[in-house]
């Protein structure tokens, strides 16, 4: 920013001014996108490469018609950028939008319409969505506010943990505390999550991954099914990339630029918990040619979206349109957006929804060296934030293990989910793949990756069954979504343990608890970074719905009563999370162990046996290394078969012995010395190598 020009703008008597419709104006600051408040007024900068005219519209709050229209003079345009400084504006008095004129040639992708008010692509706050579920108008006439940026971060320092040291907890801002059982004062809000920070700390969480918090319209597609009002609950249809969702606040935040979200991030960080945002840059809420027209379509349709030669929208996102991420204008917007959230909100990481789209060329083909992904990987502002890719898209591009990572990106390891789900439910022909997943997927993460630090291991996430449902349902049950159960994934690799759905059969319940504990133990003892879905730790259910994107009700809201009902599950999760944190040999290669054991090794039920094949029913992984405190030796045994199996543990030096830490088949597993062990059907046991007592 040019300090001399700002000083001139703030002393308007020193410079010649133009007068437009009652306002003193002058050319603005072309390098500052969006609307920026300065002492004497507001700077408005907007880009439209192919427009012929742009107007700034000023509205009194809540009024339909603008009280002032300020056309940008021709000499206020440089290239495709329009910039105007307007003196005398009080940012608390107005909302703003734009009208943009230009050619209308749909077959060329040009669809300018000067009759439609447009939302600033760089809007820092969006009006009209402050009350959840209430649709302000039918025309999608979004407006923006100019924000105050005076939040006091004090001496705040970002945690910046190594990614492999994180325990990631994926949650939905509203669903986490909306149910009355959450017992918070501000349910369904950022404040509600703040009230649960002591809970997150007690559980041992070191990172929360928030499902989309960018402004979205949950009322898009609003409908009634089976007596329920269905909304765009998940929020994967962004309206504005720079603005937090105002309906997630406990109070209306006029011009405060997301203070409640900043309070949440500051308090989470102060408690050692990082914040990762689930961001959606693959498409927008404007949809295809039948969708609304409120921002990007009106500024530069064929720049912001990937279009067919006939001017239609490519749909690699499955949501109607695809953002043209590798066009320089869009690249710049995405980079500025992520920098903004990093600088102003102290966000610690970003998970990119359908990230393979970010690597598509402007014609939709996959790029070998996508410039956007490279720029994000090497940007100095983003140096310490986590970049996590969902390395696939709805157009069939699946890149787990081949995503352009530039030695920087991590991935949601979808193959970990699939292979481990299969093996744990006794599909033992997945044993070889499961062995690789346990030790950080070395078959996937070589070359441009960072090894096991690139693998985000998960068995559950928002998309698919919860962990309770994974072992309660063989089939999805999405009838309440209104699509005759045709939506959602059919490849769930789940097992109902003998009864479909809820049951009071004690044997079935006992088996389900064991299967959940198996999943938890394996996840926490795998190389890579563990992530699980909020509520899994106390057996939250979504009643078999594996795609509750539209369910703003008890299907999606966490039922905190189950925390008491399933307290043993919670305590097991807590115990295994703590175990992982206390044993760095699981997470990293340490100094070599004096035992001579390698840092990580895979076994069958016989030590050092690596003859794993499609009949292998047992696996074990051993971690070994040395810290300043001494040897760190961990042995994890998996029996996925329906009969018990005998394990012989690797022989330790005479001064050491194996002690049992946990066995999922036992209600309580006291420490006992082990040389061989009979592992019960469908169970997991964990052992620690300790020095013998003299």
From TrEMBL:
One of its GO terms (biological process) is glycogen catabolic process. SUPFAM superfamilies: (Trans)glycosidases, E set domains, Glycosyl hydrolase domain. SMART domains: Aamy. One of its GO terms (molecular function) is amylo-alpha-1,6-glucosidase activity. The keyword Zinc does not apply. Keywords: Glycosidase, Hydrolase. Gene3D superfamilies: Glycosidases, Golgi alpha-mannosidase II, Immunoglobulins. Pfam families: Alpha-amylase, CBM_48. Residues 170-580 form the Glycosyl hydrolase family 13 catalytic domain. It comes from the Bacteria. Belongs to the glycosyl hydrolase 13 family. PANTHER family: GLYCOGEN DEBRANCHING ENZYME. This is Glycogen debranching protein GlgX. It comes from Blautia wexlerae. The gene is glgX.
């Amino acid at each position: 920013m040019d300090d001399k020009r700002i000083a001139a703008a703030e002393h308007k008597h020193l410079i010649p001014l133009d007068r437009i419709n009652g306002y003193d104006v002058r050319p603005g600051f072309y390098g500052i996108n969006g609307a920026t408040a300065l002492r004497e007024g507001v700077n408005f900068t907007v880009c439209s490469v192919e427009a012929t005219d742009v107007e700034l519209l000023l509205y009194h709050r809540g009024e339909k018609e603008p009280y002032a229209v300020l056309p940008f003079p021709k000499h206020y345009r440089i290239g495709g950028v329009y910039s105007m400084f307007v003196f005398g504006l009080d940012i608390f008095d107005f909302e703003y939008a734009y009208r943009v004129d230009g050619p209308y040639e749909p077959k060329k992708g040009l669809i300018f319409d000067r009759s439609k008010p447009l939302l600033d692509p760089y809007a820092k706050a969006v009006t009209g969505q402050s009350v959840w579920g209430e649709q302000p108008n039918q025309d999608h006439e979004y407006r923006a506010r100019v924000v105050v940026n005076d939040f006091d971060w004090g001496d705040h320092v970002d945690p910046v943990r190594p990614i492999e040291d994180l325990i990631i907890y994926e949650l939905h801002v509203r669903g986490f505390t909306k149910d009355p059982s959450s017992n918070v004062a501000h349910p369904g809000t950022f404040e509600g999550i703040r009230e649960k920070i002591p809970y997150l700390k007690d559980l041992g969480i070191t990172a929360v991954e928030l499902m989309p918090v960018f402004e979205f319209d949950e009322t898009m597609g609003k409908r009634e099914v089976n007596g329920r009002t269905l909304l765009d609950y998940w929020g994967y249809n962004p309206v504005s990339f720079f603005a937090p969702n105002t309906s997630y606040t406990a109070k209306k935040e006029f011009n405060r630029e997301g203070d409640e979200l900043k309070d949440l991030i500051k308090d989470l960080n102060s408690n050692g918990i990082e914040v990762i945002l689930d961001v959606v840059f693959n498409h927008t809420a404007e949809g295809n040619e039948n969708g609304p027209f409120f921002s990007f379509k009106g500024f530069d349709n064929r720049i912001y979206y990937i279009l067919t030669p006939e001017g239609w929208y490519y749909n690699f996102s499955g949501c109607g349109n695809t953002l043209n991420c590798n066009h320089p204008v869009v690249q710049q917007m995405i980079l500025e957006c992520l920098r903004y959230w990093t600088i102003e909100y102290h966000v610690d990481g970003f998970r990119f929804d359908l990230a393979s789209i970010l690597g598509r060329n402007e014609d939709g083909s996959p790029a070998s060296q996508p410039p956007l992904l490279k720029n994000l990987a090497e940007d100095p502002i983003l140096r310490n934030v986590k970049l996590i890719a969902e390395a696939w898209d709805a157009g069939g591009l699946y890149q787990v293990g081949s995503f352009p990572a530039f030695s920087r990106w991590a991935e949601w390891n979808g193959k970990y989910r699939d292979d481990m789900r299969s093996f744990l439910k006794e599909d033992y022909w997945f044993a070889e793949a499961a062995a690789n997943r346990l030790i950080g997927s070395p078959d996937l993460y070589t070359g441009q990756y960072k090894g096991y630090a690139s693998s985000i291991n998960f068995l559950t996430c928002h998309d698919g069954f919860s962990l309770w449902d994974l072992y309660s349902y063989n089939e999805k049950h999405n009838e309440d979504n209104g699509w005759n159960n045709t939506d959602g994934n059919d490849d769930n690799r789940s097992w109902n343990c003998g009864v479909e759905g809820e049951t009071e059969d004690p044997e079935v319940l006992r088996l389900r608890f064991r299967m959940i504990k198996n999943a938890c133990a394996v996840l926490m003892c795998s190389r890579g970074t563990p992530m699980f879905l909020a509520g899994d730790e106390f057996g939250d259910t979504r009643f078999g719905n594996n795609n509750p994107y539209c369910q703003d009700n008890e299907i999606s809201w966490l039922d905190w009563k189950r925390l008491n009902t399933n307290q043993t599950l919670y305590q097991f999760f807590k115990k295994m999370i703590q175990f992982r944190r206390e044993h760095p040999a699981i997470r990293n290669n340490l100094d070599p162990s004096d035992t001579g054991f390698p840092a990580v090794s895979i076994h069958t039920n016989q030590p050092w046996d690596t003859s794993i094949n499609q009949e292998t029913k047992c696996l074990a992984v051993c971690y070994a290394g040395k810290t300043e405190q001494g040897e760190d030796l961990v042995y994890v045994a998996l029996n996925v078969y329906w009969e018990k199996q005998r394990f012989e543990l690797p022989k330790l030096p005479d001064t050491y012995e194996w002690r049992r830490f946990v066995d999922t088949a036992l209600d309580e597993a006291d420490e006992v010395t082990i040389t061989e062990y009979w592992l019960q059907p469908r169970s997991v046991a964990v052992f620690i190598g300790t020095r013998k007592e003299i």
